[in-house]
Amino acid sequence: MHGSVIMSIIFGMMACNGSDSSDKTANDSLTTTATAAKATDSATRVKATKKKKGQMSVAMPMSDSAKIVKDVHGVYNRAEKAPEFPGGEAALSTYINKNLTYPQAAIDNGTSGTVRVTFVVDEDGKVINPQAIDGKNLGDDIVNQTLKVFSNMPMWTPGMVHNKKVKARLEVPVTFQLADADQ
Question: pLDDT for 10-41, tens place per residue?
């Protein structure tokens, strides 16, 4: 018996402005959706009763209402021109769909929830210091895989403030959800 794992990732970007990500202003953000399917041989892992599929979604809302400030390390909470993944949000979606897998053990155990990742894009476009600030209750496998994908990202176009390349902090919530495979 072969099962399949379906992943969908929804992207929007969020500059870290110190506001709670559950803030109602997050609903005003741009969202781009991309879906990718990955088949896995799960004959020994999927229970014979009902197949499950895993879905991952990422929403990165932009909040332009926050004041642009630099911390003591020279990292801006947001930039006038936000850092950009090469090829934009659609390319970012493709990258994550190709590189992040919903762990089969997590699917089998019914594990779902959100890993919020914060990271800095430096002046050269390198992603530095990705950290999970939420979602540790989902287990090390999900968190570690998510952080590995962020750590291995290609170079971004850096953020700009006053026409100067700057370090800027971003936050990306990655949501792992389960659904019946026949849906």
Answer: 444 555 544 443 333 333 332 322 223 333 33
Q: What is the number of other CB atoms lying within 10 angstroms of the CB of residue 71?
A: 11
Q: How far apart are CA 98 and CA 37, in angstroms?
A: 9
Residues 168, 66: contact at Cβ < 8 Å? Answer: no
| CA–CA distance, 131 with 116 (Å, rounded to integer) | 8
**Domain range for 10:** 3-180
Give Rg (Cα) of the chain.
17
Q: What pLDDT, on the 0 to 100 scale, is given for residue 52?
A: 66
pLDDT score, position 36:
30
Query: What pLDDT does residue 134 have?
Result: 86
Which whole-number Å values give the CA distances from 33 to 5, 7, 11, in the listed order?
Answer: 18, 11, 6
Nearest to 119 by CA among 6, 9, 5, 13: 13
For the chain, what is the largest distance between any 2 Cα atoms, rounded to a whole number of angstroms? 59
Higher pLDDT, 161 or 90: 161
Cα dihedral: 127, 58, 9, 3 (round 10): 100
Nearest-CA neighbor of 101 among 140, 145, 147? 145
